[in-house]
From TrEMBL:
GO BP: endocytosis; protein transport; regulation of ARF protein signal transduction
Record's protein name: SEC7 domain-containing protein
Subcellular location: Cytoplasm, Cytosol; Endomembrane system
GO cellular component: cytosol; endomembrane system
Membrane topology: Peripheral membrane protein
Transport in keyword set: yes
Lineage: Eukaryota, Viridiplantae, Streptophyta, Embryophyta, Tracheophyta
One annotated GO molecular function: guanyl-nucleotide exchange factor activity
Species: Zizania palustris
Length: 1342
């Protein structure tokens, strides 16, 4: 919107106090840098110039006979001045400025001087003032103003000469107001200067354009000089002063004559001057500085220039000029205006009332200036102009910005420009919402303006125009304001839903503290809730009044038992009611309805209001019923209220009733087309005789009422709807009354307290409007503006968790990408690259997905469709679906120097690393929604397979980056991957991605989701179900990933099922030539030093170690290391056994489990003790012996030992013996050494455990089993020969055993256990081994 430019501030010198002239230096100071001689010469030159003109132009030329006597007084005074300035005394005199100016002032005032002399004198006066400006006292300036105001020169002067004089007058007045001592002019002289300037402006209308322009510029400068001082004046209008400024001196017959402004007691109020605002002029007198009184008078004068409404259609020049001056005054006065009551009241009432009329003029220039003034008033004084601003937007902007009310295109454009300017004020819309939309007595201005902007941005059946773009700018400014407030927010406001638990009079609710957001935010939201409910109640009432009232009772807006006051307030303050129904209700004869009617009348304030004005306001709120009895009741209630507040106007209330009835009759008579003979003024006065208590009412009152009704009809059928679009005088009076009692204006701050509610109202139309403009425009700057709007909407939606709004935005953007319909294009990639709109939409879409993806819901479906299309077109970067991986991770093709057997890029299978928070697109996906699962058969075409792989990559990336939502996603993800794994029989990219994606998911999520750990680990069983060809192709990499999973998450695997799955995956690699080493390293990581061994995984790890020990893949050294792991694991059993000691049932169960694991360990070692490889077999025997002889720390009872001998030792001895006798020596080399080790193992274990074994009931059987196997072993033949080693070893071992048994008293003569003679049976077997052992152990004496 075009605004008048503010004149350069440099043109207005700051007003400073004039220092006292206590020395002669002040008089000498001047434009010549303080040189008295130079100043004297300059003044003398100016005087000489004027003298030259005078000698030629004065009407009384001198006689040559006597020069001295014939000199004209004006000539004499100038000659004296020339002599005076060169005297030493004059140079030192403080009165020099006044003395130097006086001769020129006399010439200006003189009636003898012609136009040429006056012009020369004014020019000299101006130049001398400039020279002496720093030292000019206030008295001199006042004298200059008086002289210019009374300037006289001969009539009949040429037009050019007259214009020159007028221009010189303006220059001198400007110099006075710009002088340092200008503040000492006083209120009266400032008014005189402004009045004189305006007279020149008025006269210039009939003269040349140069004078017209200059005079208006001078007037503008004067107003700026005056009001620039306002911010420096203290608050208050001051008391009565001795100076009464007047804006007189102009032709009062002029239609723009100025009415003097007086206060209530008839004396003029001037500013109260404090001691520091006094000015000491050259005479030493203290004078009052000009201030509020003259500003009030000037401002009132400017407003009065707008009072003649009929001039609007004739001449826009003067009101436009007045508005420009008013705008400058408001700009300079700023917020200081509200400190002064009289100035503020002028702005609130007279200025705004006039602007409401001029705003509807047909002149776009006037409308533009009115809007500019209101914008400045909003910026500086909005907290004092709440209802005025509502009226401005309701009656002007909303009316003129749309064509349906008859506004021209230029008016629409100016109104829309003004609205956009307001929208660019960051908190404007928020303040409208808080102060008006949330006030039950005000219109929903914010909502109406937002709808207006949205509708105005729609190009309906027409090309995109500047008006559409303008409305779009306004919308986006509102959105940007909300987005900026989000940037300032420290946290998201917690907005609790508003509910009414009990009845409270809604019209009486007040806010406790408007300065504290905790109070006023809750207050305005509750008011808005009440307002919405009232409007819903109004809708119900319009359909059925009884049900409408019942609805309001149910929502606690009316009491359970209706009372007249609450119903009356509902009628009074609720917009949208059917006024016909309200009128019928109020006119009803029912007692309750009559009470409601009188309570309804009590809600009006008729104090100091004319009867017709009060009646207009009263009848605007409902339709006056047609029945005479109802009219009688309505007017009785009205007259009672009016008389109550204006009893001094009538003798009694019957007078008010009769006159009100008479006014209704007059209104019908004058404005009913069917009445042919109209009532005259005399008829009206005659009809109302003797109604005032038997006497007549004043004729002037009745005459005024008659003309008011004739000129302005009382609408007995008021317009329905949300309010008015015209500001009538009666409505303005009512507005001013309401403004005194309305709630305080809430000034917005930088926090988004109400943005959620506001955005919920405007989001739908806003997105639609931006989308339509984006669709219709091809200009890049407009498209970029739309993009800013889209991003702003997304930011607000995400911040306030408005997911539906964000989804709608995403859907709109997806349509503009053109990615979903490129099948119709021959070269889609080229077409997409050439389409700026499509590229902008795509970039915006993904920007929103990246930033606010956590709040997108159903919109992801559309985003994924776009992503898939970009993938098919080859426009996606390689890492788009794998951005969840860490940049520092190593590609699988570099692990152990082995390439990945894959048909797709290795970038699709990044090795797992430390989880991190991704900043990429996939990292922001919030949930998985209805992703199509792959069919049972692998995609047939390469394109389909590539798409399937890409979808799977997205799925995995989504899962990895949504660990907090994994419970929601996991079932669908697992089923999709399982479908791929179970339906694939040959290696391919899809199954590869599924396998390694599953492993990545498990590794990443195990540390964070303990409650889901079992589900994640169970999913790895899918790997075990792979087809053999697929498993073999990826075995190496699978093992690497599982090993990595174990090393990274061993501490997070707790359950038996989880360990079983993981260890099983590792153990099946034992016989794989490429994968076995990695698998074994992972087993070592678990078992070494018992770091990660637990009761849950012990048995599985022992079995896995056994498989690696048995495996012939790799070196024997790995089998040996596997045996060592098994042997060392016994230490863990011992530790657990010690930790589980106790007598509780739980401890017993724990110990029993440990014993079972010990037996499994022994069985595994026993199996390995039969290995064909000598080194493995012998090391297994040593390990088994180590485990059997180190069991003192394992809490074993005696019974398990019997099983250990039967299941482990005896079986081992028998199996070794059978192998040595029945298998080829080539298959089992050096079995003799193994037999020796086995026999040593049996003897050593027996001796160590003898104390425990002796107590067993089966001890005899166990002992005889040892003897029988020794007996067998000593007879063994190796390679057809007796084994010398065994032949030597067994007697020695047996002798040692017998000695120990003897010493412990176990083996003694006549000793019987179990009914058999242990002694006899022992020697029966021993003698078969060696006949000398009995005599060696037991001497003959024994």
């Amino acid at each position: 919107m075009g605004r008048p430019r503010m004149p350069c501030a440099a043109g207005i010198n700051p007003i400073t106090e004039e220092p006292p002239h206590s020395s002669t230096s002040g008089a000498a100071a001047g434009g010549d840098g303080g040189d008295p001689a130079g100043l004297a010469c300059a003044i003398s030159a100016k005087a000489s110039a004027v003298l030259a003109v005078m000698r030629r132009s004065l009407r009384h030329p001198r006689s040559a006979a006597d020069d001295a006597a014939a000199d004209h007084p004006l000539v004499s005074s100038l000659k004296v001045l020339r002599r005076l300035v060169f005297t030493t005394a004059a140079a030192a005199s403080p009165s020099l400025p006044v003395a130097a100016l006086r001769p020129f002032l006399d010439a200006v005032r003189s009636e003898d001087a012609g136009a040429a002399v006056t012009s020369a004198s004014l020019a000299a006066l101006h130049e001398v003032m400039v020279l002496m400006e720093p030292s000019l006292p206030g008295a001199a300036l006042r004298e200059v103003v008086d002289a210019v105001a009374s300037c006289r020169f001969e009539a009949g002067a040429k037009a050019a000469a007259e214009e020159a004089v007028l221009m010189q007058m303006l220059q001198v007045l400007l110099a006075c107001l710009r002088a340092p001592a200008a503040a000492a002019l006083g209120d009266q002289h400032v008014c005189t200067a402004v009045n004189t300037c305006f007279r020149v402006v008025h006269q210039a209308a009939a003269k040349g354009e140069l004078l017209q322009r200059f005079s208006r510029h001078a007037m503008h400068e004067l107003i700026q000089c005056v009001f620039a001082r306002l911010p420096h004046i203290g608050s208050g209008d001051g008391g009565d002063g001795s100076v009464k400024p007047e804006m007189g001196g102009m032709d009062k017959s002029h239609p723009f004559g100025i009415k003097q402004m007086e206060n209530g007691n008839g004396s003029y109020a001037s500013e109260e001057v404090t001691s520091d605002e006094n000015s000491v002029d050259g005479s030493g007198l203290v004078v009052e500085l000009y201030g509020i009184p003259c500003m009030v008078e000037i401002f009132h004068f400017l407003c009065s220039l707008l009072n003649v409404v009929e001039q609007i259609r004739v001449d826009e020049d003067l009101p436009l000029f007045a508005l420009k001056l008013i705008n400058s005054a408001i700009k300079l006065g700023g917020s200081s205006i509200q400190k002064h009551t009289k100035l503020l009241s002028l702005v609130q009432d007279e200025l705004f009332r006039n602007m409401m009329h001029f705003g509807l003029s047909g002149s776009p220039l006037i409308l533009s200036m009115v809007c500019s003034i209101v914008l400045n008033l909003y910026h500086h004084l909005r907290n004092e102009l709440k209802l005025q601003l509502e009226a401005f937007f309701s009656c002007i902007i909303l009316r003129l910005a749309q064509p349906r009310f008859g506004a021209t295109y230029h008016q629409q454009e100016v109104a829309m420009e003004a609205l956009v300017d307001f929208c660019q004020q960051k908190n404007f819309m928020m303040e409208l919402y808080a102060n008006l939309d949330c006030d039950i007595t005000c219109r929903n201005v914010f909502e109406e303006l937002a709808n207006l902007l949205s509708k105005s941005a729609f190009p309906i059946n027409c090309p995109l125009s500047s008006m559409h773009i303008l409305a779009l700018e306004g919308l986006i400014s509102v959105i940007q304001g909300m987005a900026d407030r989000i940037g300032n927010a420290t946290s998201r406001p917690e907005l609790m839903p508003v509910e009414l638990d009990e009845y409270t009079p809604f019209w009486a609710v007040k806010c406790e503290n408007f300065s504290d957001p905790q109070h006023w935010v809750k207050f305005v939201r509750q008011r808005k809730y009440v307002k919405r409910r009232l409007m819903i109640g109004a809708d119900h009432f319009n359909r059925d009044p009884k049900k409408g009232l019942e609805f309001l009772q149910g929502t606690h807006l009316l009491p359970e038992k209706l009372d007249p006051q609450s119903v009356a307030c509902f009628f009074r303050y609720t917009a949208g009611l059917d006024k016909n129904l309200v009128g019928d209700f109020l006119g009803n004869h029912d007692e309750f309805c009559v009470q409601v009617l009188h309570e309804f009348a009590q809600t009006f304030d008729f104090q100091e209001m004319n009867l017709d004005t009060a009646l207009r306001l009263f009848l605007e709120t409902f339709r006056l019923p047609g029945e005479s009895q109802k009219i009688q009741r309505v007017l009785e209630a009205f007259s009672d209220r009016y008389y109550e507040q204006s009893s001094q106007a009538f003798a009694n209330k019957d007078t008010a009733l009769l006159l009100a009835y008479s006014i209704i009759m007059l209104n019908t008579d004058q404005h009913n087309m069917q009445v042919k003979k109209k009532m005259t003024e005399e008829d009206f006065i005659k009809n109302n005789r003797n109604i005032n208590g038997g006497s007549d009412l004043p004729r002037e009152m009745l005459s005024e009422l008659y003309h008011s009704i004739c000129q302005n009809e009382i609408k007995t059928t008021p317009e329905q709807g949300m309010g008015y679009f015209e500001m009538s005088p009666s409505r303005w009076i009512d507005l001013m009354r309401k403004s005194k009692s309305t709630s305080l204006y809430i000034v917005g701050d930088s926090q988004p307290f109400l943005d959620h509610d506001m955005f919920a109202i405007m989001s739908g139309p806003t997105i639609a409007a931006i989308a339509v403009v984006f669709d219709h425009s091809e200009r890049e700057e407009v498209l970029l503006t739309c993009v800013d709007g889209f991003l702003g909407v997304a930011k607000i939606s995400a911040f306030h968790h408005l997911e539906d709004v964000l989804d709608d935005l995403v859907v709109s953007l997806c349509k503009f990408t053109t990615l979903l319909n490129t099948s119709l294009v021959e070269e889609p990639v080229t077409a997409f690259g050439d389409d700026l709109k499509a590229r902008l939409a795509t970039e915006t879409l993904f920007t929103i997905a990246n930033r606010y993806g956590d709040y997108i819901r159903t919109g992801w479906r559309n985003i994924l469709d776009c992503i898939l299309r970009l993938h098919k077109l080859g426009l996606l970067p390689a890492r788009v679906a794998s951005d969840a991986t860490d940049d520092s991770e190593v590609s699988p093709e570099t692990v152990h120097g082995k390439p990945t057997p894959s048909s797709i890029s290795t970038s699709h299978i990044p090795v797992m690393g430390t989880p991190r928070k991704s900043s990429g697109l996939m990292g922001r996906f919030s949930q998985l929604l209805s992703l199509d699962r792959r069919p049972q058969k692998v995609a047939s075409s390469p394109d389909d397979e590539d798409t399937a792989v890409f979808c799977l990559e997205l799925l995995i990336a989504i899962t990895l980056n949504n660990r907090d939502r994994i419970v929601l996603l996991w079932q669908g993800v697992y089923e999709h991957i399982a479908n791929i794994v179970q339906s694939t029989v040959m290696p391919c990219a899809l199954v590869e991605k599924a396998i390694f994606g599953l492993l990545r998911i498990c590794q990443r999520l195990l540390p964070y989701k303990e409650n889901l750990a079992d589900e994640l680990l169970r999913s790895l069983q899918l790997v075990l179900k792979l087809d053999a060809r697929v498993a073999d192709a990826y075995c190496d990499n699978i093992t690497q990933e599982v090993a990595h999973l174990v090393k990274a998450n061993a501490g997070h695997i707790k359950s038996q099922m989880g360990w079983r799955t993981v260890v099983l995956l590792l153990s099946i690699t034992a016989r794989h030539p490429d994968a076995s080493e990695v698998g074994f390293e992972a087993i070592m990581y678990i078992m070494s030093e018992g770091a990660h061994l637990s009761l849950s995984n012990y048995a599985f790890c022992i079995e896995a170690s056994r498989q690696f020990a048995e495996s012939r893949v790799g070196l024997i050294d790995r089998s040996i290391r596997a045996l060592d792991l098994m042997a060392d694991s016994a230490n863990s059993l011992a530790r657990w056994s010690q930790e589980t000691k106790g007598t509780s049932e739980e401890a017993e169960k724990g110990l029993e489990a440990i014993r079972e694991m010990w037996l499994k360990l022994l069985q595994a070692l026993k199996k390995l003790s039969l290995d064909q490889r000598e080194e493995v077999r012998n090391h297994a025997l040593s390990s088994l012996q180590q485990c059997l002889t180190a069991t003192e720390r394992v809490c074993l009872q005696s019974a398990p030992w019997s099983h250990a001998f039967d299941l482990i030792i005896f079986t081992l001895l028998d199996d070794l013996l059978e192998i040595s006798q029945n298998h080829s020596q080539k298959d089992y080399r050096n079995m003799e050494g193994s037999l020796v080790l086995a026999m040593k193992l049996a003897a050593k274990v027996y001796l160590q455990l003898l104390p425990d074994l002796f107590g067993l009931s089966s001890f005899c059987k166990l002992w005889l089993g040892v003897l029988s196997r020794m007996e067998k072993y000593i007879k063994v033949k190796v390679r057809g020969k007796r084994s010398d080693k065994l032949h030597e070893l067994i007697p020695e071992l047996l002798k040692s055993i017998l000695v120990v048994m003897k010493n412990r008293g176990i083996l003694a003569k006549r000793s019987t256990i179990g009914g058999d003679s242990l002694w006899e049976l022992t020697w029966l077997h021993v003698n078969n081994i060696s006949t000398t052992l009995q005599s060696d152990v037991f001497s003959s004496q024994e």
